[in-house]
Specification:
- The two termini are 27 Å apart.
- It is built from eleven helices and no strands.
- The longest helix has 26 residues, at 146-171.
- Helix content is 80%, strand content 0%.
- By secondary structure, the protein is an all-alpha fold.
Length: 209
């Protein structure tokens, strides 16, 4: 397989994986709706970096160790599940915008916290490790250069960054937010419920196939 054909395969599979709704989608949506456009984009940056880290250690072989260690896999799985459930529970308490304005409160979040939401949410999902392992074991051959491997890993990380940043920019547009103002708290609650469901699904996922 040439580098070009390998890249096309990585791009196609990575794009499908990224745009499929999951924990990263829910986290980005939550940050953009609950806080701000900036927070949503920073969460997307955290997700992109998380995928870059997953790709890196998968390519150097650590991912294989994680996937074969039941104890380590389950530890990551439970941490990730707990984090998603925690964020979901926080979102369930979202109040209507009018109620927030009556109390003169504006929901804000620091750049670090917004970034950390995306980074930890992605890193603590062991299914991401298995995804990269499954992808790269089909693409990377013994003779594949380090440069080509870096391109493969960087492609998926960049895809996730661009996709989720665009999502944050879209849902944080003024006309979108104005249209969603009356139901924004319900959307956040639904997103919170989705995070809880995803967290519970992650918690009960099989350790190894």
């Amino acid at each position: 397989m040439t580098v070009w054909s390998g890249w096309l395969t990585v791009f196609a599979i990575g794009l499908v994986a990224v745009i499929t709704p999951g924990p990263d989608f829910a986290l980005t949506l939550r940050s953009a709706l609950a806080y701000s456009r900036r927070a949503g984009v920073l969460t997307a940056v955290g997700i992109g970096l998380g995928n870059a880290i997953h790709a890196t250690y998968s390519l150097v072989g650590i991912g294989a160790l994680v996937s074969q260690s039941i104890l380590l896999f389950n530890g990551l799985k439970l941490l990730g599940a707990a984090y998603l459930i925690y964020l979901g529970i926080k979102s369930l308490g979202a109040k209507p915008v009018a109620a927030q304005q009556r109390h003169h409160s504006r929901r804000t979040v620091s750049a670090w916290v917004a970034f950390r939401i995306g980074l930890l949410g992605n890193l603590l999902n062991p299914k991401a490790t298995l995804f990269f392992l499954a992808l790269f074991t089909q693409i990377v051959q013994p003779g594949t250069s380090l440069a080509a491997q870096a391109i493969y890993g960087g492609t998926v990380a960049l895809l996730s960054l661009v996709w989720f940043a665009l999502l944050a920019l879209l849902v944080s547009q003024r006309w979108v937010k104005q249209g969603l103002t009356a139901v924004s708290h319900w959307l956040e609650r639904v997103t919170g419920a989705l995070l809880i469901v995803l967290g519970l699904r992650l918690a009960v996922a099989r350790s190894v196939d």
